[in-house]
Specification:
The chain has helices at residues 2-32, 35-48, 61-71, 97-103, 110-116, 151-162, and strands spanning 56-60, 76-83, 88-95, 120-131, 134-144, 147-148, 175-176, 181-187, 190-195. With 197 residues, the chain is an alpha+beta fold. It has two domains: 1-33; 34-195, no CATH class. Strands 2, 3, 4, 5, 6 and 7 form a six-stranded antiparallel beta sheet that branches. It has a three-stranded antiparallel beta sheet with strand order 1-9-8. The radius of gyration is 24 Å and the shape is extended.
Length: 197
């Protein structure tokens, strides 16, 4: 009888210890895994030139958003991407165009600062085509504070607020991706970066 109660007690203790270890492991993974660092390691691997032709590096949507949040220029916060399919990407952010301009080294005059200063909700949707080492980005929609923008206004924003930070950015024209990247494979869960020769 005593041996039965001892074995039952041991099983209960074993179950508790097992449960405690499982909870500890989940907590360690949740708090110890840094999505931004993971994204940086993958980007560094791509840029290293050590990957063999045909290799594929997968960046999850969570990693992309962590990277976008940390790498966003001053004046941009809460940057968030959504991958809507094989070619469509949407993004939102809060943007202070005055701070963004100052981060580029320009001090807006009094009138321009009144127009540019203050955060605004910015959103956009683009189609991305890639292959042969090149990528083409076509803006489908863009809005600032809920107001759709296009044409000359959109060109002005791209030339004055995006190109200074990303000089190789071209809209509607193919651009070489570099680092032997052959193509990008987009899916709602993330982006696969395929390495060419």
């Amino acid at each position: 009888m005593a041996s039965r109660s001892n074995s039952g007690r041991r099983r209960r203790v074993y179950k508790r210890v097992k449960r405690l270890l499982c909870v500890s492991l989940v907590v360690a993974i949740a708090f110890g895994f840094d999505l931004y660092s993971s994204a940086c390691q993958k980007v560094n691997l791509i840029e290293s030139g050590r990957l063999l032709p045909g290799a594929r590096v997968d960046l999850t949507l969570a990693e992309l958003n962590a990277y976008a949040a940390k790498e966003a220029p001053e004046g941009v916060r809460n940057a968030r991407l959504v991958l809507e399919g094989q070619e469509t990407v949407s993004g939102t952010a809060m943007v202070d165009f005055g701070k963004l301009r100052r981060a580029q080294g320009y001090e807006p005059g009094w009138l321009m600062s009144k127009l540019l200063d203050g955060e605004r909700a910015v959103s956009g949707t683009a189609r991305i085509h890639s292959g042969g080492g090149k990528v083409t980005v076509e803006v489908e929609r863009a809005s600032i504070s809920g107001v759709e923008i296009d044409g000359k206004t959109l060109e002005f924003i791209i030339q004055n607020f995006i190109v200074p930070f990303y000089p190789s950015a071209m809209v509607g024209r193919p651009v070489a991706m570099g680092y032997r990247i052959e193509r990008l494979q987009l899916a709602p869960s993330g982006v696969g970066v395929v390495i060419g020769r």
